[in-house]
Fold:
Amino acid sequence: MKKILAAAMILVLLATMLTGCGNGGTANKVSKEEDVIRIGWIGPLTGDGAPWGQAELNAIQMLVDETNAKGGVKGKKLVLSHYDNRMDSVETTNAGRKIIDQDKVVAILGTNSSSASIALAGVCESSKVPQIATTATNPAVTVKDGKARPYTFRVQFTDPQQGTIMANYATQELSAKTAAVLYEIGNDFSLGVSQFFEQYFKENGGTITTIEAYKSGDVDFRAQLSKIKGTNPDVIFIPALYKEVGLAANQARSLGINCQLLGADSWLTYDLFTVASDAVEGSYLVGPIDLKDPILDDFKARYKTKYGFEPGAEGGNAFLAHDAFMVLIDALNRAESFTGEAIRDAIEATKDVDCLTGKISIDKDTHNPVKDGFVFKIENKDFKFVKRVKF
Amino acid sequence: MLQQLINGLSIGSIYALMAVGYSLIYSLLNFTNFAHGVVVTVGAYLGFYALTFLSPKLSVAIFISIFGCGLFSVFYEVVTYRPLLIKGTKRLYLMIAGLGISILVENLIIVVIGGRFKAYQGVGATETIGIFGVNIGVVDFQILIISILALIFVQFIIEHTKAGLAIRGAAFNFDITSLMGVNTEFLITLVFMLAGALAGLAGIFLGIKYTAYPQLGALTTKAFISAVFGGLGSLPGAVVGAYLLGISETLISGFISSSLRDIFSFLLLVVVLLVRPSGLMGKNIEDKA
Structure:
């Protein structure tokens, strides 16, 4: 009896090992190695960032299918592998190794967060596989020690741009003289944006009353907000993720803080309003894209036909994933061969590729895109486009 | 200053609900129940679904969270801890089993319900009362009152009922209490029920204030520190520790630095443990042996 049981256990183990290999999505279906180009996507499918990751993956999967239906790239079909990173740096490193060593991808799209993209940059560099980050905004994602990281690119605008746009907008358009900042320690995005906001707010003649911090996983900000209330600022800049923004905004209002709140692109999701119903009304934020821009309609319609709902409720991720994909396809068409090095060289030479967020060129010295930022105001639980800011 | 004290009290009262659960189980079984955090998460989700699908009344949701989490605690105790206790395994293995439960349930929630947060609607999480220039959230006030009532209730059970006497006896010496004819299995079930019920109460409050999400249980780390701070195994100690930690956290972030808050809180813990190794109100280790 015991032997039968042991045999059965071994069978079960073997079965799980075999099925476990299927994680790479469609990778097993195509047999002839030379006829395909393998590309990868890494991003969050579980955890706080899941809505963003799912939108990106949906968009890219759709574009891969569309490209293949039209005959692929240079006659070769695209094969997409994907991994969940839970927006965690360690998970990202593991996923990066797996996707390069096991799935043999030649380029990676993602990730959406700065910390994870920086972690992935190390893996990409050592394996010589180029990476195009979708919505990561920290300068260190593409630049290290003043030089562009050779294998990392992005299609999103950067923290310096976001922080600068908000600081300029606050001092010039909202005539704010004093500002307080609430940011997340250990989050490269949050820290980066707040540093540039602080720098430009001061350069424009404003005063930063206090800079308060919280840790990842914190849910109560009343201690920090009470301190901010004591300094009585004109505006509070909160470059945080939407859940923290929602909680902080609620807590600020319940402490009797009525001043204007300013935010960054991480606010740009309707989920924000399920936490902070009225608390964020009248706030301003900067985003990478105007979600109601008619230029997006065609893409939205195709997405809706495939998935049954329009992208955009979760923010700009689906559109930036589209842009990252477009930059990659453009590079693949120009690349001399389908090796990581050749594709890297082609991405670096990207010039005026038609994308949803405008024409994208890649700056050779920073690997950042050259494009615009958009300022929004929150009105009636919606993001109302106010101004386009050129850089 | 007053505002920060109020903030600290409201944070402390939730820490207290969770810390008492750690201390209850530690006092009886001498191990730290690392599955406690996930019970809080379950409580937050139960409360959310009760409010969404059953009844918009908060009292109904609170009852369901308390009762559901009490049952859930007893369930995992019977399924995992009891077989291990009967085999007489080391306490270390119980802790590992507890960690296993918490990882399992957290990931089950991610798979079944999803990783996104669930925000409670229409429970007035942002309404406030202003007194002397200090703003107190209505929900915070309710939480403070209900927490204190719940803690008094548990203290009453422990001090003034027959079962409570048996728990105190078993906490002093488990084997002898068992030899005296007390059904210790029933005692363990009862203690898990109480700890689970408190965790459920904490869970629904956390859900109202901070939304329900799979990693919510991680907040119990602070409650565990409170329990150690006050003396593991001592119920009044856990409560005092929780309020002290809540207040010191808000005062530190308000008057020293919010980025150094946790460093200061943990330093405080280290200092207390250096001076009084068994915590503020813990019994001496010799007494317990």
